[in-house]
Design goal:
Number of helices: 8
Strand content: 5-15%
CATH superfamily: SGNH hydrolase
Distance between the termini: 9 Å
Protein name: Lysophospholipase L1-like esterase
Largest sheet: 7 strands, mixed
Shape: globular
CATH architecture: 3-Layer(aba) Sandwich
Radius of gyration: 17 Å
Domain SGNH hydrolase-type esterase: 48-225
Keywords: Signal
Pfam family, one: Lipase_GDSL_2
GO molecular function: phosphatidylcholine lysophospholipase activity
Length: 245
């Protein structure tokens, strides 16, 4: 992976966190070009996952991607170019690698080719909902085991890649306990991967309410804004760790 950010980025982030926290919130409808900021390095970021990554349930079809891009635009350290073979939504640069109905193993079967084609610097991963909802094996520990295999494959393909993984959340009855157990395992996995020198950040998912959903599984635009709000600190943490350059 090419070095995209200047040396000393971690120190800059540590000094600027307080300033960033005072920035006015991005307008949900704003779709801006972080890539156009003069002098800012641009990260190739692949949103990876299932139909939630696609943005199903979003009126615009942008899902969390446009909202996250607006958050990135409010800081000056890096820009974003979304990459992937899929494209939908009203936003500019709508590329992603989200696939409806996909489970963890489905992503694993395709990820080698997607990474090779897009050459991302960062992957934003949100996966596991279908495994825990309607898959043939709903055991959250088994799903977490499959997640570990996926992580091994991703880091074998691109050892210097940074992955920001957001924990799942749901208001669907019967899933909450499975989701909580899966998230605990995913957080433990991130710690173990970091101890091996891998660049994996786990960030807790948003505290969704029933009103944040378009249906029983997919967020509406309010829910997707909360997803973006949860992903952004993961990117900031990766930058503070010195992983983005």
């Amino acid at each position: 992976m090419k070095r995209l950010l200047p040396t000393g980025l971690a120190a800059l982030f540590a000094l600027s966190n307080a300033i960033l926290s005072l920035a006015p919130p991005a307008t949900a409808g704003t779709v801006s070009h972080a890539t156009a900021r003069t002098g800012s390095p641009v990260l190739r970021i692949m949103p990876l996952g299932d139909s939630i990554t696609v943005g199903q349930g979003s009126i615009t079809g942008n899902g969390y991607r446009a909202d996250l891009r607006d958050l990135v635009t409010d800081q000056t350290h890096y820009g974003v170019q979304f990459v992937g073979d899929q494209s939908n939504g009203t936003m500019t640069n709508p590329q992603h690698e989200g696939h409806g109905y996909y489970m963890i193993n489905d992503v694993r079967h395709g990820v080698d080719g997607w990474l090779a084609a897009a050459q991302p610097d960062v992957v934003l991963l949100y996966i596991g909902t279908n495994d825990l909802d309607w898959g043939t094996d709903l055991d959250p520990d088994h799903a977490a085991d499959r997640l570990k295999v996926l992580m091994d494959q991703i880091f074998t393909d691109q050892p210097e890649l940074t992955v920001v993984m957001e924990g799942l959340n749901t208001t669907t009855g019967g899933m909450q306990n499975r989701v909580a157990q899966y998230n605990n395992r995913a957080a433990e996995l991130a710690q173990a991967e970091q101890q091996q020198g891998r660049r994996l950040v786990f960030t807790n998912g948003p505290s969704w309410e029933t009103k944040d959903f378009a249906d029983r599984l997919h967020p509406n635009d309010t829910g997707y804004q909360k997803m973006a709000d949860a992903f952004f600190p993961g990117l900031q943490q990766a930058a503070a760790n010195g992983w983005l350059g």
